[in-house]
Amino acid sequence: MGLLEGRVAFVTGAARGQGRSHAVRLAREGASIIGIDIAADVSPDNGYPPATRADLDETVELVRAEGREILARAVDVRDSDGMAATLAEGVDAFGGRLDVVVANAGIVSWGRFWEMSDDQWQTLIDVNLTGVWRTLKAAAPLMIDAGNGGSIITISSVSGIKALPGQAHYSAAKHGVVGLTKTAAIELGEYGIRVNSIHPWGVATPMAAEDANMAKLFTEHPHYGMSFASALPGLPLAQPDDISDGVVYLASDLSRAVTGTQLTIDMGATKV
């Protein structure tokens, strides 16, 4: 029996990278999965290739290979109606319950704040902060109605704890996720629903490893690099599974006394 046997988990940004890893790991622990991803380009300011429908299809196959069911849809976290419809479909298909939410979907772009266009700023805020609020707004009533308590996990960042140059909009959004998480933890506590945030550092995904705009910024402003150190220089990037370890912990009863907490999985980057 896995740690999440018989439970249902909702994962946003599930097509690849961390989201795919979270979906597969939660399935391995026994959860049925509801997964969404826009699976398309989000912004011309992003310097890495977008996830695709083929990526989302691969996640479906990987979850099924764990012996669990998955309902996956190409839905944008900026689309409240689409998210609510997908959740209703999934909850109905998987026995009327929703136990775990992983608000993982996010994008990144780079630039000094005064050089960003209004669209670059607003699109990232809409996805990385408002998209998390829309996720929690859609999921919380279903969790309350199911009456099983549960766990909501928001994926913030080191940028949600300390500010980083070239990422004013990203830092603002990820700090905002922390405030939302803490408030949600207080408001949902009476229903036995715990809410915590995870704060990764660099993770080996296309967002981190294939971003041409990030490389350009550091070339133009090499002194920014001092803000991007960690306490484990021998581990420059975590693997998605490292972050999924934290997701499984927070999703399961191993963390039944933990809520409103910021879990750093960051190679010590918030300490230097």
Automatic annotation (TrEMBL):
Q: Which InterPro entries match?
A: KR_dom, NAD(P)-bd_dom_sf, Sc_DH/Rdtase_CS, SDR_fam, SDR_subfam_1
Q: Does the keyword Oxidoreductase apply?
A: yes
A single MF term (Gene Ontology): oxidoreductase activity
The domain of life for this entry's organism is Bacteria
The protein's matches in Gene3D superfamilies, at most eight in alphabetical order, are given as:
NAD(P)-binding Rossmann-like Domain
Query: Into which family does the record put it?
Result: Belongs to the short-chain dehydrogenases/reductases (SDR) family.
Q: What is this protein called?
A: NAD(P)-dependent oxidoreductase
Q: Which organism is it from?
A: Mycolicibacterium hodleri
